[in-house]
Amino acid sequence: MTHEAKTVSEQTRERLLDAAREAFSQHGFQGATVREICRRAEANVAAVNYHFGNKDGLLAEALNFAPLKAMQLANAKADGNPEVRLRLFIRDFMLMLLDETNGSLPCRIMARELADPTPALDKIVREAIAPLHDFLGKLLREIAGGKTGEAELRRCMHSILGQCLYYRHSHPVLQRLHPKLRYDHKKIETIAEHIADFSLAGIGYISGKTCA
Amino acid sequence: MTHEAKTVSEQTRERLLDAAREAFSQHGFQGATVREICRRAEANVAAVNYHFGNKDGLLAEALNFAPLKAMQLANAKADGNPEVRLRLFIRDFMLMLLDETNGSLPCRIMARELADPTPALDKIVREAIAPLHDFLGKLLREIAGGKTGEAELRRCMHSILGQCLYYRHSHPVLQRLHPKLRYDHKKIETIAEHIADFSLAGIGYISGKTCA
Amino acid sequence: MTHEAKTVSEQTRERLLDAAREAFSQHGFQGATVREICRRAEANVAAVNYHFGNKDGLLAEALNFAPLKAMQLANAKADGNPEVRLRLFIRDFMLMLLDETNGSLPCRIMARELADPTPALDKIVREAIAPLHDFLGKLLREIAGGKTGEAELRRCMHSILGQCLYYRHSHPVLQRLHPKLRYDHKKIETIAEHIADFSLAGIGYISGKTCA
Amino acid sequence: MTHEAKTVSEQTRERLLDAAREAFSQHGFQGATVREICRRAEANVAAVNYHFGNKDGLLAEALNFAPLKAMQLANAKADGNPEVRLRLFIRDFMLMLLDETNGSLPCRIMARELADPTPALDKIVREAIAPLHDFLGKLLREIAGGKTGEAELRRCMHSILGQCLYYRHSHPVLQRLHPKLRYDHKKIETIAEHIADFSLAGIGYISGKTCA
DNA sequence: CATGAATGAGCCTTCATTCAT
DNA sequence: CATGAATGAAGGCTCATTCAT
Predict the structure, then answer these.
(1) Alpha helices of chain B — where are they, by DSSP H?
(2) Distance (Å) from CA C13 to C1' E4?
(3) CATH for A71
(4) Based on the domain organization, do C49 and C136 belong to the same domain?
(5) Based on the structure, what is the number of domains in chain C?
(6) Are B200 and B162 in a shared domain?
(7) Å: D30 CA to F5 C1'
(8) Residue C210 phi, psi (nearest 5)
(9) Same domain? C102 vs C187
(10) For A155-191, how does the pLDDT look when each residue is reduced to its tens digit (9 = 90+)?
(11) Are the beta carbons of B161 and A173 separated by less than 8 Å?
């Protein structure tokens, strides 16, 4: 994409990273094999060791949370109405998790690793999840108002994240229940809209209850 | 064979199943090893293959959804008020997923396997998830009223399940963010109550919107 | 050798240990491969892991210093004349190091590992070398008399051990210099006799010098 | 190419050789890795193969026995008393093997390779060991007199070399037995003096016995 | 209905070496 | 006379599985 050429090495690195993201997001860290990743990247088995030291290093570099951060940044700069921004956030987050053409593989890997700690989980928590919680927490604070307790607010946050992640985690199951299921751009937006509606109502109730 | 005493073999089977549930719920199907399960069950390495054919067979038999079904049955017979029954369901489900002393290991295994299809997933879907969806769908129908669309209702169901499963899936992450975190009985009830409040408000909004 | 039968497993273990001793004494710990050892023992690659945990464990068990200790014990019980016992010791030690038919492979492995520390060196030092130094030190004390200093005595010990080990360490070199070279029983005794003569004269001089 | 400045390439070569000597003497030929040598020499991974063909070639060129030969030459020109020259030889040889500041790395490599034949052993034997044996043999002949047999004389030579090499070979072991052990210049001279005393007495006895 | 022993495929990694520039 | 990148063989080890008793 840059107007400069990439070295051969960088191309191999990229191919390796792409193949790794694909494999890790599909089979998990343990389930994916270095051999298969190299095969898909049309590189030698030793290429992973050469470029990334080992499998752990490959995972660490495959995790690129720039899109996730960019999304939050753009969201923060968007229209000041916090409800609208929450809707926007949910939509963007769902697209990252589900969209088959433009989804963020690192986000999907992250989703998988939630339940299955790998050596990279510390980095994931530090660089992606903690900032995400901060961001979402502040946004919810704006919506809920100052009187809602910290704990209540955090639980609202978990409710929202849980709804979003569910569609990723349960994808294999949902596909078995509804074989025709496909997440195209429009369907994702419908789901996101539902989650936003559902959650804004939930937040409204929770914050109202606290007020009263 | 008598309906009183268990044969030695049956005892071994039971120990094997218990150890397997423990291991699968902790490390996942792939992460758990047959050797470790046999060691914990104080059985021979070949015992798994002897009693259950192979690792897949062990998983299939380790999955016992009787408690989950019993819970649904009890729920259906409980107080007729559907909102209260939803609260009850969420509480019971959360206890199964999180309670460290009385939780249902098969439910936890199920939660893990959602995202990582194993040969047992078909059985899980057929015997546990599909009935659960049916049950929860009907309950929500009662709450939301007849005018709410099928799709909307299903999305509400996903919102609820997503919130519940989140606490199980994200446990390793949440524990890193809040090292003091422990799910005792009381805390689980608090969370369940939140999810119920949050969700009933959400359902109310969704069904109301549909009505209008 | 015992009048009881050995289990199949024990036979495999023994074959594995024999092959390992052969390989380790020939190629060193690092140079010997588990695969080759298993091939020679007509066992599966995983047999080493099964019986000994890993390569280190195989080495640890391959080291059997019982013959070395038995030799020292027999020596201590032999004729009281310490000079004669030193001659006996040198002869027995040389036979262990060099005799192609009755030599002690563990001793040869030990000789190799002197210069190339492996995870087993601590055990070797503790169980074989330290006792050997104790034994030889006491024997030399008897020969040299009480007035010789500890340091001098230890250096005499090193002189003796150095002469003995030289023939093992330098074997590849000596064989290139004298291609006809073969260590048969008789030739080893001649060498041992030389070392004994040479060393007793040396000790005599050192202890005399100290006295004067 | 001029007899003043060295080309960049020659400097790299030298750094490579120095690093190789260091590595080979520390970890042995097999234990040392080309990558580590290149890293220490701040050269490219391919530099070794470029300059020396392969790892074997690097070893062959790293072996520089000029110091050893110079030592023998100087010894031959020194004071005519053969006993004194033997003392001198042992001292110089021990310094080469042990002195931490001025020791000869090639000599240490040679000592290591005695027991572990590498493709360079033929060269080592031809260029270093055979000449050394010749030199030492002649010196001992002068000391022992004409009547001592060839075989006896050679065994005396082995006794001396064995004593010297022992301190190098057994260094890892001796250091474990006596953790405080350090070979400074003075301590080496003490050891060398012991070996000389011990050996001259031994030679005296052996040659006397032969005479008688 | 049980077991200790053995199996072989496959994993990640390391290494000396070679290729293309 | 040099280099960064790539290679493939081989290493130790783990695992679910099967064999012989």
Answers:
(1) 8-31, 34-40, 47-52, 55-62, 66-77, 82-98, 105-113, 121-124, 130-144, 150-169, 171-177, 185-211
(2) 13
(3) 1.10.357.10
(4) no
(5) 2
(6) yes
(7) 25
(8) -65, -45
(9) yes
(10) 999 999 999 999 999 999 999 999 999 999 999 999 9
(11) no
On strand E, nucleotides with any atom < 7 Å from a protein CB are: 1-19
pLDDT one digit per residue (tens) for chain C, 212 residues: 344 556 777 889 999 999 999 999 999 999 999 999 999 999 999 999 999 999 999 999 999 999 999 999 999 999 879 999 999 999 999 999 999 998 999 999 999 998 888 989 999 999 999 999 999 999 999 999 889 999 999 999 999 999 999 999 999 999 999 999 999 999 999 999 999 999 999 999 999 975 54
Contact flag, residue A54 CB and nucleic strand E, below 7 A? yes
- In tens, the pLDDT along D57-113 reads 999 999 999 999 999 999 999 987 999 999 999 999 999 999 999 899 999 999 999
Residue A27 shares a structural domain with residue A88: no
Domain with C83, as residue range(s), is 66-211
CATH value at residue B50: 1.10.10.60
Q: Is D7 helix (H, G, I), strand (E, B) or coil?
A: coil
- Closest residue to A114, CB basis, from B162, B172, B199: B172
Which residues, 6+ apart, have CB-to-CB distance to C168 below 8 Å? C97, C98, C108, C111, D115
Residue D79 and residue D40 in one domain:
no
Rounded to 5 degrees, what angle do the CA atoms D84, C155, C187 make? 85
Calpha distance C10→B165 (Å, rounded) = 51
Q: How far apart are the C-alpha atoms of B68 and A85, rounded to whole Å?
A: 39
Residue A10's pLDDT is what?
A: 84
Nucleotide closest to A43 measured between CA and C1':
F6
DSSP string covering C116-162, please? S--TTHHHHIIIIIHHHHHHHHHHHHHHH-TTS-HHHHHHHHHHHHH
Q: How far apart are CA A107 and CA A98, in angstroms?
A: 10
pTM: 0.89
Tell which of C159, C168, C206 to mutate to test the D interface (max D CBs under 10 Å): C159
Distance B24 CA to F21 C1' (A): 32
> Are residue A103 and residue A202 in the same domain, yes or no?
yes
Q: How confident is the model at residue A1 (pLDDT cuts 50, 70, 90)?
A: very low
Q: How far is A188 from chain B (nearest CA, A)?
A: 12
**Nucleotides in chain F with any atom closer than 7 Å to protein CB:** 1-19
Hey, what are C122's tokens? 């601590």
- Kindly state whether residues B124 and B169 are assigned to the same domain: yes
Do A99 and A29 lie in one domain? The reply is no
